[in-house]
Design brief:
single chain, mainly beta, 5-stranded antiparallel beta sheet
Length: 138
């Protein structure tokens, strides 16, 4: 079983999936993704100020998935082959997981500059699901 996300939960998180809305901690000023919960920097349980990031960042970790992808990505992997996924640190300092697109997956490296773009992720419950992926910046 992969990461099943119900349709109501998916719709409720559209802002974070399409606009990468971050939460700015009122205690320490750190940016968090998602914009809810406890601050990853100071552990404060506070109401975050929502901030829309510039959308660029740096690859912190990357791996290429060439087999055994989660079920929701089976169709994608069959159609596209291996794909790269990893952790990106946005210019604002928040770190988040993401897939890489518009590139050869074997050429994505730690330290590469990337920008966020909205792309189709997968289809579940008959509904195509879109969200942010990252592509290399020249």
């Amino acid at each position: 079983m992969g990461a099943y996300v119900s349709l109501p939960t998916w719709w409720r998180s559209n802002d974070s999936r399409y606009r990468l809305v971050l939460g700015k901690c009122p205690e320490c000023g750190a940016h968090n993704f998602p914009a809810e919960g406890v601050c990853a920097s100071c552990n404060a349980d506070a109401d975050f100020e929502e901030v829309e990031p510039e959308g660029t960042g740096t690859v912190q970790a990357v791996t290429v998935i060439s087999g055994g992808a989660p079920p929701e990505f089976d169709e994608y992997q069959t159609r596209e082959g291996a794909f790269a996924t990893g952790i990106v640190e946005l210019a604002e300092g928040a770190r988040l997981p993401g897939m890489f697109c518009d590139c050869d997956p074997s050429e994505v490296s730690r330290g590469d500059r990337v920008e966020a773009v909205v792309r189709r992720l997968y289809e579940q419950e008959g509904v195509p699901r879109y969200g942010v992926k990252f592509r290399p910046v020249e």
